[in-house]
Protein 1
Amino acid sequence: MKTRLKELRAARGLTQVELARLAGVRRETIVFLEQGKYNPSLQLAWNIAQVFELGIEEVFILEKPLPDQD
Amino acid sequence: MKAGKNTLVYVSVLAMLSIWGFIAVYRAGYIPAGLEIFIFLMIMIAGVYAFVIQMKKYKDMQSGFPADDELTEQIKYRAGYLAFISSIYVWLALFLLKEWFTDFDTLFGIGVLLPAVLFIAIRSYLSRNYSEDTA
């Protein structure tokens, strides 16, 4: 899963610590999310999207295509 | 939050008692020999680790961060799973090498404490190098 977290955070002038506090997680979690090493739960993805006032799909981008629905 | 603080206090006190216990035994003149030294070392590692982790959590809580979040929980579960798998091999090795042990207590102590130390090592490693790719 790709993420625009770093870009969005920089655009809003937030530090990792501030974002962690706003999302209710530890700073290490934000670091792993930005590095793409951790896929957040739906709850955390929603919390982070709320911080940026965006939709989840605008913050987190699924790399693998969805299964063919034909 | 209150339950978290109570747990923190209990674990910290237990960790301190373990360390003081070791120091008391050491000062009493009993110096473990042979394989027993590994048991004492493993108890020390577990005690110090528990203390350091709880202090870190306490500092985080003071700074307004949660003591645990979903990533730390996941790391804990994964480390537990890997330590459990490792413990099977540890016990297999201990049964194969049981002739090396002079008494059952030492064998049993190593069998119990080594997976605990492995859990600590795996958890520390995953805390720094977690990746979904290695799940």
Protein 2
Amino acid sequence: MSWSNVRLTLAREIRDQLRDRRTMFMIVVLPILLYPLLGVAIVQVSQLAEEAPTRVLIVGRASVPDDPPLVEGHRFVEGLFSPPERARLLELAFAPLDQPAAVAGPADPRLQAGLAVQYGQYDAALYFPSDFRKRLDEFHQALRRGATGLEVPRPVFIYTTATEKSQRAFARLVDVWQRWNDRFRRANLAALDLPESIFAPIEPETIDVAEATGHSGAAIWSKVLPVLLLMWALTGAFYPAVDLCAGEKERGTLETLLSSPAERSEIVLGKLLTIMLFSGLTALLNVVSMGTLGWVVLSKLPGFGPVPLAGAAWMAIALVPASALFSALCLGIAAFARSTKEGQYYLMPLLLGTIPLAVLPAVSGMELNLGNSLIPVMGMVLILRAALEGNYAEALLFLPPVAAVTLGACLLAIRWAVAQFNCESVLFRESERLDVRLWLRHLVRDRRPTPTAAAAAWCGIVILLVRFFAGVVMPVPGDFRGFAVTVLATQVALIAGPALLMGFLLTRSPRQTLLLRWPPWLAPLAAAALAVALHPAVKVLQAGVFRLYPLGEEVQGAMRGLDAVLSAAPFWAVAAILALTPAICEELAFRGFILSGFRQGGATWRAIVLSAIFFGLTHSILQQSLVAAAVGVVIGYLAVRTESIVPAMVFHFVHNTLAATAVSVSRYVTDRWPALECLLRPGTEDGQVFRWPAVLAGGLAAVAILAWFHRLPRTSEIAQ
Amino acid sequence: MIHVRGLTKHFADLQRGSLVALDRISFDAAPGQIYGLLGPNGAGKTTALRVLSTLLKPTAGTVTVNGFDVTTQSSQVRRQIGFMSANTAVYDRMTAWEMVEYFGRLHGLAAEPLRQRMEHVFDRLQMNEIRDLLGAKMSTGMKQKVSVARAIVHDPPVVILDEATAGLDVLVARALLQTVAELREQGKCVVFSTHIMREVEKLCDRVAIIHRGAMLAEGTLAELRERYQENDLEELFFQLISRHEETRSGQAA
């Protein structure tokens, strides 16, 4: 790596970007000029909207109470407003009970008033029944007599939630009515010669401890600023990435640059650092500008304080990995595009995918824990929220996992970006007209013995989508028969079906694609032994995942229902449905078609991991997906080492059988041989039936078996 | 200096399946020689030059540039060459001086020797008037000059020029061809692709006629004229192309 070339590329790209009006608009004009102007405009407009009067129809003026007075002339009494000038904001119109507003419809004045509001003639209406005043007088007289259990007459507020103006009129009416109620209550107390204090509410004293730490009113910042920072870091990376990659391709300068002595990795790093710089600057300036503006505008509101300085420092530090991550992702995606326009389209899904990860923790009250901290972007938002709230100890505690995940994602993204620059089919892709017929003809005509990586990805996506929609549409089975039919239909039609269909249509050798060949004779036995040996470790992993990401009540309920259904069925039937069927169908799809497709590029481990990820994702519960993906890596390794689907199927079958029967089998074993309780602990609530010696012994045995598979000569080598 | 043996390049093509862009091409180019690749559009000239400049990897065959293999020693190859692509692309937001300086620095030239070399190149190519002009404001001729300048600023032993005169007016094209001729006199090995017969006749020491990825003829102009008993290069070119097309049609039938 020549750092001189990286520095040169970086300097050139920075100079280039600084001369680009779009970039300068994003990082300078937008935050420094536009936001303040927008803020001023918003304040002005909101004032206009706030001060606009609303029209209220009062039906039954004759029944409006005089004591305490509510209406004076054509307005509500000024004393019912704070400040009194706000009385002008409610413009009143009056309609007698026998002759309301001129709206065609029913004769009932209350319904007439409703129609008047509905059609926008008035923003709200206040309806007094004809006997309101009479009943109020009766109430007063009864009160003076000392009667109890009195009923107070009630007016009717009519408004519509369909319009914002009507809701504003309603809020003002409620405000007026509450003040009138206060007066009404005080007058009643006076009539009874009682002190007002007997109805005085007990107001507790409040202490905001945040005032002592300088985090007063930081809650709102902790929700808003991390999201803003990350979204601007992404947006800031977006345009430079498109310009530096797709733009350079479009202008034709990339070819000359790539023929210079600079290595592709040096060019990528130079471009990446440029994008990072502009991403960071964009985020920093936009957040500072929006934050300052927000503080100026909102600082007068209660519970709103300045941004804590230490929290701001955390954000500045977090900006570096955030910019690096988004810049590398944008660079990789933009390198794939042929033009700036295409680049913008390709980057849009990244933006859409990041928004929920950034916004969910802010709006859902999600807690910062180990599980959440391991989710890219989300962990960073949560850790920044904790820092802004002043919970530094908590933020520091989860800093290592967040940093590790962000760094890992960042390195993967950089590696991918470099790979894109090394791929000549990406760099020199010519424009092709989108023609479905041509494309389908190409798929069939140019078939290879095994599928392409793109076909494998499509197969995985098709399986995921049909599984998802089928899961939404299919009814939840109530008995084992229904459960068996659902599983069989899903596995055969939705998982094995697409893979087999694509295998026969898109490849010249379905046999080679689906690894339909016999492995060395000992391999299936070794795969079965590996599944048994690895099972305790898988259970430990599963328990860990469930601790990190606890199952929701609904999922737990569904799983209990499933357990009840399965426990009533015979063992052989459970094994056939839960173990044999997935072992055949899922292996044909994931270790057959998908793994073969991803192996086309030659990167075996990448193919194993990608097929395992798709395998994991087909399990509808997230926690199961994580464990299944880990197990999928082991099964993929067996398939690659033996070049056969058989050991993978055997492992899958044994693994699933053990998973379905572990608790009952361990109970049976320990009942017959109590000495084995040093290894097994049946009947536990969490389903964890293995003790640590069993886990360790199983793990060692699994390592030995995997080593045996590793030494196994490949089928191709045997043929040679 | 340049040795090409059995160079083959295939591309995946949606319409035609696998497209053979180059089919077992072989030629040698020596120092102090201008080697011309002559062929119609889509013949495979640009693909061949992209392989020489390590932008594309050959599907089969071997290519060495100044003793370095383009597949296994690509970064050493790139230090030996100055490449000018066919698209006359320059950076819109950089001046002529900045662009040439950038490529000189990438080739490892120190500041002062680079400045002296740039002064020389700018003088030679009469570029001093456009020194501070941004790429976006340059005419095609100006861009072409900048492309030549950045290809030769580091004084490479091999210069690869892809359709260098495409889209240029007569005056600029003539000046550029003069520069190419001077490079030969300086002992450079120049590989020059074109579809203009006059340029080949005027400039090239050896020429390869390429069509649909196949090399139809190769040699000095005198050798080709003698071999095919045709003095007019244009006529010779058409004869070879027609014969190749007839052979292809016969094979297809």
